[in-house]
Specification:
262 residues, alpha/beta, Rossmann fold, 8-stranded mixed beta sheet, 8 helices
Length: 262
Amino acid sequence: MAHQTDPPTPARPVALVTGASSGIGEQFARRYAREGYDLVLVARSVDVLQTLADGLAAEHGVAVQVHGADLADAADVAALTVRIADDLPRIDHLVNCAGVSPEGDLADADERALRRMVDLNVTALTLLTRAAVVRMRAAGHGTIVNVASAAAHQPMPHLAAYAASKSYVLMLTEALSEENRAHGLRIFAVSPGDTETPMNAGPAKNKRQPEQVVDTTWKAFSGRKPSVVDGRANSILATVSTRILPKRFGLRTAERMMRHKA
């Protein structure tokens, strides 16, 4: 469901951001607006998106469209891929930020919640990325940012399915980065750690802020790395867990760290 305000203009670059109603996605929308991009904002919460869109358009003089969609729904994903492929006058950046993070042991998980997580974190992201790649290859340029997670770098007991879904995002994105380099596309993943968002609202020390994740991403635009980790501590932990610790020791350490989520 698309709510029309002013349509994107061919003269300005266009960024499409999923999960834009709150948290990291909202901060991506705010940053793109400040940088002079027209926007297409995607989330289920249409009223919240419309309020954000109206504010950004008034403050920054950019065109902001709202596209209401549940990206765990195949029909909504199909409609958005058509919009990316055919309906927008241009698309310069795609940020796949929408996602869910069910916690607990797999044995205790609700089957519908698991299906929703895979549909959103894996299937929707893959199909939207494909649609953007096709459009951007034809244009000879474009940038795609897929939001993974620090959990993508290490198997996570008690958060196993979520971590695996984000590992998929990381591996897919890194492969696509190289696959599309010769076509002029910049594709990379950003992996936030513990960040202050509605999806991660529990108490914790030293949480990162969504704005910091966006800043990390912005700095990576001009680079060539296929993935970046937000925050020095998170980056060190990802390096240690993937390159230094023996697998069994890493798993036992992760289990102790995540036991409270069982």
